[in-house]
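Archive entry. Fields below.
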Amino acid sequence: MKSLAELKAIRERMQNQVGIRAEDHNHIRVVVGMATCGIAAGARPVLNTLAKEVQDRGLTDKVAVTQTGCIGLCQYEPIVEVTAPGEPKVTYIKMTPEKAVEVVNRHLVGGHVVDEYTLGAADIR
Amino acid sequence: MYRSHVLVCGGTGCTSSGSPQIIEKLNEEIIKQGLQDEVAVIQTGCHGLCALGPIMIVYPDASFYSMVKVEDIPEIVSEHLLKGRVVTRLLYKETVTAAGVRALIDTDFYKKQHRVALRNCGVINPEVIDEYIGTGGYEALGKVLTEMTPDEVIQVLLDSGLRGRGGGGFPTGLKWKLAKQNDGDQKYVCCNADEGDPGAFMDRSVLEGDPHVVLEAMAIAGYAIGANQGYIYVRAEYPIAVERLQIAIKQAREYNLLGKDIFGTGFDFDIDLRLGAGAFVCGEETALMTSIEGKRGEPRPRPPFPAQKGLFGKPTILNNVETYANIPQIILNGPEWFASMGTEKSKGTKVFALGGKIHNTGLVEIPMGTTLREVIEEIGGGIPDGKKFKAAQTGGPSGGCIPAEHFDIPIDYDNLISIGSMMGSGGLIVMDEDDCMVDIAKFFLEFTVEESCGKCTPCRVGTRRMLEILTKITKGQATMEDLDKLEELCYYIKDNSLCGLGQTAPNPVLSTLRYFRDEYEAHIKEKRCPAGVCKALLSYVIDRDKCRGCTLCARTCPAGAIIGTVKNPHVIDPDKCVKCGACMEKCRFGAIYKK
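PREDICTED_STRUCTURE:
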């Protein structure tokens, strides 16, 4: 290593990975249903896509991607719930890795709920 | 890219309670369940809660598992890592509340802590330099080399108010300034990692959990005083710390963060390790340097101070591990940030190793000025079994006791000195009503006698005479004249010893005499040990009214000292009794007591 720029490059690359280990009350929580029903419906690629996107974009200091068990809506799995501090929970249903990328882009980065993928839009009542 | 990080403590405490086996099983199970591309297992340094090891934290949700067993691993992997269902029954109990799982930073143990020196311990993998860089590592060195002059660096340290964490509390900035002022063709930067106080292990934890911080700070010191060679003197009894330091030095050299022309600024600096062979006196600065030179580790008189004539006769600075661990943060965050923590004359934080009669045995870092009560009752979780606090011992064999009457004293250098103890390197041993203060003083004296290097007479002979008197007292054979003689010896040894070891050796006796003279007198005048510790002064007795004659005690007694027949009260023969206490432990009716 010959320069500060090289040090900075390593820091930026590592920061997103080490950032996952921060503990903070202000994180946006992205929770993927990973019970048997979720896994069978393809929740794992969704979870991994979300985790990768969040790290690649350097969002680990703001967003935590975790899993949860079955929430009882097995027919709508894979389900992803997004809870931002002080805002109501948003539930996305029937997720795919492609939809997950869109949620990261529009919701986590852009701040706009992707209405068409939410439970509310599915009109299940 | 991993979606989840599983951190397993690889400090000495958790290693001895089985964390390597946990890591092995985790990796095995993760591969078995096909999660190897999603979940990373990372070995870290100490988290502080050593009593609850092995410790494991799962991120990003920060679930804190304590006392993990190998058999629990398959369940944790399939339930938590795969399906996301936290295995609540295996979590650290303090994090589980009626309202659900709470964050670790909200538990009593962590709430009042403020981690500066231990910032990365338990967070990064100490064997991967990139992880250290990822948390801002080596940025302070870069800043110092490219933006600051040596005088500016020293000024920042002076302004921060940082004082040596090894015990003496000498201002670090001043030490550096003196070393810089002294001209020399060669100067040295040394790190004292010869942590020897019984019960103290904060330096070990920093070296094991964040070795690069010490390397970075030493390079900064080298730049500030004009040295290009550093030595870390570390005890050979710390094998994990030694290994991680070796890895860290190798990695830093590969990245050219140690070596020639660092960051292209023309500054050269390298570090070598020297292993201590286990002599306590080598923690004393002049003895440490003598030992690095390859000679027998004996102290020499000061002056000249190391800043004038140190290692190999050249100007040298010698700082403790924890002192160094604070420095990169001070450079990056500014002296005002550091000076905003702590009390008027003691800035920043201090790491303490909690031990003895306390719930949360382990490592804590608190801002200076936190009271002893907060440390013991809140962070430490209090004293087990509802016993009463008697005293806390700080400063190891050089320190003294803080009695209950000073429970609310804010901990800093000057307050501790004023009540006859000292900060020391940070061992804090808690004692309850079952501890005999004469016995404690005797324990530390035994240590000093064992470790005295023998160069000067007051320490070599004096401490041995002190120990003899203490032994007489604990056997009930001493007179009040002996007590006076003991006190006189204390002051004589303090005034006449060559080095810090001898000058402070009487402190445990002096401070217990100051606060617990009545216990000494009870041993001498009444031939009685109030805490029931000194074997020669106590006898076990069976209460005739409570004894049911179950014969259990008689069968337990290793000396055959208990006589009696079934259903009749038993009696202990005091001539045969070896006072092991086994009968008292076994008795189901509470019929046996100490007198």
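CURATOR_NOTE: Chain A touches chain B at residues 1-4, 7, 10-11, 13-15, 17-18, 20-21, 23, 25, 27, 31-36, 39, 44, 47-48, 50-52, 55-56, 60, 64-69 (CB under 8 Å).
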